[in-house]
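Changelog-adjacent note: as of this version, every example in the card shows the full chain rather than a window. The one below runs 541 residues end to end.
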Amino acid sequence: MGLATTRRYAAPKPVTAPELKAMLHDGREIALLDAREEGVFAKRHLLLAASVPLSRLEVRVPLLVPRRSARVVICDGNEGLAQRAAGKLMQHGYSDVRVLAGGVDAWAAQGYELYSGVNVPSKAFGEFVEHRENTPRMAAQEIKARLDAGEKVLILDSRPLAEYRRMSIPGGIDCPGAELVYRVHDIAKSPDTLVVVNCAGRTRSIIGAQSLINAGIPNRVVALKDGTMGWHLAGFELARQQNLRAPRPSGAGLAQARQAAARVAKRFGVRTIDVATVARFAQEMERRTLYLFDVRSPEEYAAGHLHSTVNAPGGQLVQATDAFAATRNARIVLIDDHGVRAAMTASWLIQMGWQDVFVVKDALRSGRLYRGSAAPEVLGLERIKCDYLAAHELKRELDSGRATVIDFETSLRYRDGHIPGAWLAIRANLEDNLRQIPRSKLLVLTSLDAIIARLAAPEAARLTQTPVAVLRGGTAAWRAAGLPLEAGMTRLADTTDDVWYRPYDRTANVEEAMQDYLAWEVNLVKQIARDDDVAFRAFPG
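Full-length structure tokens:
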């Protein structure tokens, strides 16, 4: 079993904090990656670092750093994770990989800024926009009073459908970020209707409201102050499992949306290119990174998309840019059907400081469209050979007491439902985790779709004499077979610092966590004012 290799790789070059600072400002492409688990990363990290935990590196890096000759610098907390991550990248053909000597402590020792939280560049940008544009906001109490008085109020929730269904403002309509200007004209029919944009907290409320204001719709537009968290903290009930969705625009609504997007594109210098130019960009991938993002909804993408494009719904691309593109100074090409969503998304990326952002004209008419979701690239996965068990075979092994299951899924998913008796582990810490797990005659590895489990299989085989197998199809296959699940943090071989817990992911002190989170967002605008790594841009109105 395993990924056999006899080739030796040189150790990655160290880079000092001042050298990294200079690299971040020299105008050349650079990807800064943090190899720690997301929960650890969220406590203290560099502004421009993308979270790429060693445990999930092979899954995340192909999307975030598609050009293998790009400069890559990896950092950590000086515990050796960056060296291990660098070795993996070099093994998979990344040719210019360096490690930040001394980790985040060395960065802080130079007096440079460190940040808490996740998706910080986007979160800080939202606060920057509100501060610069004086984006109007309205407290939950006033909006509730207007609704109770029967006034014309349209609430648009700018989050993806799954987040909206989890908790939303009663009567609110789901209309994710880049969809707002595209769909609003048919649902805000009366210009005297107050349009309220909300998200869970602040960022997408601000960006969504300012999108409609920039587009020049005739309605008064406000952001719901502090989003659904603010609504909850005001003592109002939230709706669960709502399914009110903004419809696709009519012909007249689309015409209005196109006119509005054209105004925005002119103000912010959005550039439009043709498919031939994209083809030329693709030929230059050895020296310039190219991201091809389809900014339509996941449903539209699945119904038909171009080869080699990544679905990055526009609102989420702005909300969590570091989760889609880690190579600074790269080219970003945006695709949709009518240009509205791409233009609105491009306008925000340009303001965030991305220089080479383009919208492709008539892209979806240029070639064959593929249905379904695109299969993600996973470094080295096809070369791993391991043994598999089907779900019902695993059930028999568990019933006989022969097998132990190790689950590499996130602690949040594990808490919500896992195979009975399974132990939660962190792949990057597997050697230590195995010491906590009782011995058995068979170790069976799982994760949601089995990908992380497959990547971990040869590593586990090297660390134990016990036979190792992978649950075919992962925990999703176990669930699909109708087999039982248990919930809760029942057996932990490690801490639960693998992911960042949002306030509403918590099971205790939720309101306190919400207040702390909202205060953190507001305070970002002061912190970025001290940081010369921030490249946000202001444009005249």
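Structural remarks: The domain at 13-118 is CATH 3.40.250.10 (Oxidized Rhodanese; domain 1).
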